[in-house]
Structures are given as structure tokens and as C-alpha cells.
Write a structure and sequence with these properties.
11 strands; mainly beta
């Protein structure tokens, strides 16, 4: 089992930045792919960004390309999501997840989930 705890969410004005962190504990292993997902009000959960276990491969949703950056520090068992130029439409609960696969995009491929952290972007 892997436990994931997100932090760093909050209220920010449009154009601002936030950095989310996801700390893993339990049977942690750098062989997990990691991902950030979000679910806005009345919307389905969507993939925001994913990173391979090595950190060498990253994927981004078109809506966040050029604004968000995912990274990981396997020595600290932590994954980050740097969010810049935030927009009101980025408002959502952001979830961190781990996949036993080396690389994974869809949320169905993820095995362990955090509780989420709220990000609210005001206009």
C-alpha cells in the first residue's frame, strides 16, 4: 500500500502561481508512475499531468501545457506540480495518484490516490 498526501492548495488570483506537493509513504518505490488529476465543480475527474517513474517522460493536458510543470524527487518520495498563470477554470480539487505502471495517462491506470487539495482561482 502507498499513502499519498497532497498539500499546497489554496486561493490565488488569476495570473498567480501555486506549487502542489504530494508526499508518498508506505511501500514507496520510485518505480511508480505519478500523476496529478483534478475535478472541478460539476465536472468529471481529468488528467492534468503525469510523470514516469524515472522522471524522464511527462505528459500534460492541452489546457495546462506551457503553464504547469510536473516533477518528482524520488529521494524524498515527493511529486510536485508547479502551476503558473492560473486561470479561474483551473479551479478544482487536485488529486495526486500513483500507478504501478512505468508510464500511465488515464486515471483508470492509477492504483493509489490522495485525498485531494482545493485550488481556487479568483478572477
Amino acid at each position: 500500500q502507498v499513502q499519498l498526501v497532497e498539500s499546497g492548495g489554496g486561493l490565488v488570483q488569476a495570473g498567480g502561481s501555486l506549487r502542489l506537493s504530494c508526499a508518498a509513504s508506505g511501500r514507496t518505490s520510485s518505480s511508480y508512475a505519478m500523476g496529478w488529476f483534478r475535478q472541478g465543480p460539476g465536472k468529471e475527474r481529468e488528467t492534468v499531468a503525469t510523470i514516469s517513474w524515472s522522471g524522464g517522460t511527462t505528459y500534460y493536458a492541452d489546457s495546462v501545457k506551457g503553464r504547469f510543470a510536473i516533477s518528482r524527487d524520488n529521494a524524498k518520495n515527493t511529486v510536485y506540480l508547479q502551476m503558473n498563470s492560473l486561470k479561474p477554470e483551473d479551479t478544482a480539487v487536485y488529486y495526486c495518484a500513483a500507478s504501478r505502471a512505468a508510464v500511465a495517462w488515464t486515471n483508470t491506470k492509477y492504483d493509489f490516490w490522495g485525498q485531494g487539495t482545493q485550488v481556487t482561482v479568483s478572477s
